[in-house]
Amino acid sequence: MNTPTMGFAGTPIDRADHIRSDPAQLESLKDWRARLLRLDGLDPVLDAEGALQWGTLADCAPDAELVFLGLRDGHGCFAAVPEQGEAGPLQMGSRARAAMGILGPDDLAAYGMARSLVDWHARHRFCAVCGQPTQPAKAGWQRDCGACGGQHFPRVDPVTIMLVEHDGRLLLGRQPRFPKGFYSALAGFVEPGESIEEAVTREVLEEAGVKARKVSYVASQPWPFPSQLMIGCHAETDDPALTIDRTELEDARWFSREEVAEAMARREGAAFTPPPPQAIAHSLLHWWLGQ
């Protein structure tokens, strides 16, 4: 099975875990050759060619919290934690959305990793155990509480996103916040004590009233809004009857292979508008058409 390269995956930066716990080696990387990823809050700063803009450590404030992203070309790559993390609903901002259509695969992956990491730091400055301030540790891949000894690690939230098939048709849905005509794969967070397969069947039943079976894994994607791991799956159902949960979905429909192909080709008059190429839902539809 061939799956396309996912947006935000495949960072060219060597994460260099062995350096994170070596303060002396880490400090030696903070020289004039070190690279600082320039961010405007959580948004990327692009150069005239539409690439990520990198500066030096002299570009950040002396008291800034720095996280070590890893090594590239033997030089340290860092990012500074902004004063504020994602404050509102955790959705992609307009500037980040625009950058997604411009950045190349390597830049998109590097930005996604950095955004998730610095946003986590900005939103987790206090201990979840005792409420006291925490400090960065392990080069920014951990936060420690000096009061109670609590250790906190960057959060990753697993989300299942699935194509459900019946008799050669796919079930797709739309949320009220989606642009007009936009449909995508159903998705939902994996809950505690739940397997991936259980999460797929539960979410499809809750949102569309469809009993899914024969769940299989297809591909995954890191999604840095704020820090999700999208787990792409395929499932089948024996009964296409829909009972839509209107608190979750505005609409859900079955689409034929021809309708999906026309939508993916962006043909005029297509039955729906598909997800953008950087999203795993787009890759899942592309994969399904190739089966």
Compact description:
The protein is an alpha+beta fold and 291 residues long. It is 23% helix and 27% strand. It has three domains: 17-123, no CATH class; 124-154, no CATH class; 157-289, Nucleoside Triphosphate Pyrophosphohydrolase (Alpha-Beta Complex), CATH 3.90.79.10.
List the helices and strands and how they pair.
Elements: H1 17-20, H2 23-28, E1 35-37, E2 39-40, E3 43-44, E4 54-55, E5 66-72, E6 75-80, H3 94-100, H4 105-123, E7 134-137, E8 142-145, E9 151-152, E10 157-166, E11 169-174, E12 186-189, H5 196-208, E13 212-223, E14 228-237, E15 251-256, H6 257-264, H7 280-289
Helix pairs in contact: 6-7
Could you please describe the fold and organization of this structure?
The protein has 291 residues and is of the alpha+beta class. The chain has 3 domains: 17-123, no CATH class; 124-154, no CATH class; 157-289, Nucleoside Triphosphate Pyrophosphohydrolase (Alpha-Beta Complex), CATH 3.90.79.10. The protein has 7 helices and 15 strands. The chain has helices at 17-20, 23-28, 94-100, 105-123, 196-208, 257-264, 280-289, and strands spanning 35-37, 39-40, 43-44, 54-55, 66-72, 75-80, 134-137, 142-145, 151-152, 157-166, 169-174, 186-189, 212-223, 228-237, 251-256. The strands form 4 sheets. Strands 10, 11, 12, 13, 14 and 15 form a 6-stranded mixed beta sheet that branches. The chain has a 4-stranded mixed beta sheet with strand order 4-1-6-5. The chain has a 3-stranded antiparallel beta sheet with strand order 7-8-9, with no helix packed on it. Helix 6 packs across helix 7. It is globular. The mean pLDDT is 94.
